[in-house]
Amino acid sequence: MKYASIDVGLKRIGTAISLDGSIVLPQNAVLRKNRKQAAHDVRAFLDQWEIDMLIVGLPRGGSSEEEMERRIKHFVSLLELDIPVYYQDEQGSSYEAAEMTKGEFRHKRDGRLDSVAAKIILERFLEGNTTC
């Protein structure tokens, strides 16, 4: 089974894949110009890799939790997927990604950090779902 994860942000969408359910690799982030373009690019990414299941990071806790959850679920609905979609708590994944890559990335706006966060989200999902 092939898995992908996305970390949906307002400017970038981090992406990661696992082709075997064990090794997770960050991929190029989708730079978001508008929802329609971003949904098209994410859908093309999923089709290109022939993904069987999508894991989407959802923020838990915090003052804007409900608003971000609504936005993320709306974005996922724009993908019009016919594969299973699971939501995974992403709390702290961006901070963890920043700590892991401290000193490695010069440009924070190129999406690499977002894709490392997507990698962390997918790793959490795979660790918590040993039946995958």
Layout of secondary structure:
Elements: E1 3-8, E2 12-18, E3 25-31, H1 35-49, E4 53-58, H2 65-78, E5 85-89, H3 93-100, H4 112-128
Parallel strand pairs: 1-4, 4-5
Antiparallel strand pairs: 1-2, 2-3
Helix pairs in contact: 3-4
Shape: globular
- The gyration radius over C-alpha positions equals 14 Å
Q: Give the name of the CATH superfamily.
A: YqgF/RNase H-like domain
The structural domain count equals 1
Which ranges are low-confidence, i.e. pLDDT below 50, for 5 or more consecutive residues?
none
Q: State the CATH class.
A: Alpha Beta
For the largest beta-sheet, the strand count, sense and barrel status come to:
5 strands, mixed
The strands making up the biggest β-sheet line up spatially as 3-2-1-4-5
Oligomer: single chain
CATH topology name: Nucleotidyltransferase, domain 5
- Record field, number of beta strands: 5
**Please, how many helices?**
4
Beta-strand portion reads: 15-25%
